[in-house]
Write a structure and sequence with these properties.
CATH architecture: 3-Layer(aba) Sandwich
Order of helices and strands: HHEEEHEHHEEH
Shape: globular
CATH topology: Glutaredoxin
Strand order of the largest sheet: 4-3-5-6
Radius of gyration: 18 Å
Structural class: alpha+beta
Number of strands: 6
Largest sheet: 4 strands, mixed
Strand content: 15-25%
Helix content: 25-40%
């Protein structure tokens, strides 16, 4: 009887607990710092290079209604980079085909129009079964509601490499919601 009750409780827990909590319980050893992307500059952009820093990973597009968010992303990067925040732009053509055709075009567009100097990846798949491994991992952490639904979705990664928060495209980088979350993540110290 007792074993049956425990089995029922575990079964109910697996249904009722959010997928993100279950994913975190199953494998806390994988962190964002385990992933790397092809860089827009060529070579690799390894997230492990930013170990101990807070990351704001944003899927971007050059021809989107949210593209003006680049201005606020650059401002956030300028304001917080010396405190330990790294903004990472991830150009993607997954939503509405709104990215330019090549990394060189994206890089030039971002530099000329928004004076972007934060790190950027090559054009990357961020949704579906062919999504980059980071986005698959992030999706497991946040569940269905937290996955990118459009361009300029944002994942905030804590100093420990774990998911700290996520923000929809509608939440601008200069919003108090993001700034409060960034401040809280920066206040967390890494384990020594």
């Amino acid at each position: 009887m007792r074993a049956g009750l425990i089995a029922v409780c575990l079964c109910l827990a697996s249904v009722l607990l959010p997928a993100s909590l279950l994913a975190r319980q199953q494998d806390m050893t994988v962190t964002a710092f385990d992933f790397h992307f092809p860089s827009i500059e060529g070579g690799q952009l390894s997230l492990s290079d930013y170990q101990g820093k807070v990351l704001l990973v944003v899927n971007t597009a050059s021809q989107c209604g949210f593209t003006p968010q680049y201005t606020a992303l650059q401002a956030l990067w300028s304001q917080y980079r010396d405190k330990g925040l790294v903004v990472i732009g991830v150009p993607s053509d997954d939503f509405g085909g709104q990215e330019l055709d090549s990394e060189q075009q994206v890089k030039e567009f971002c530099e000329v129009n928004f004076d972007i100097d934060f790190p950027m990846t090559a054009i990357t798949k961020v949704k579906g079964e062919n999504a980059h491994a980071f986005y698959q991992w992030a999706g497991q952490q946040v569940g269905m509601m937290g996955k990118p639904k459009w361009n300029f979705h944002k994942f905030l990664i804590g100093r420990d490499g774990q998911m700290a928060d996520w923000f929809s495209s509608m939440t601008t980088p200069d919003s108090q919601k993001i700034k409060k979350s960034v401040d809280a993540a920066l206040a967390q110290k890494t384990a020594s």
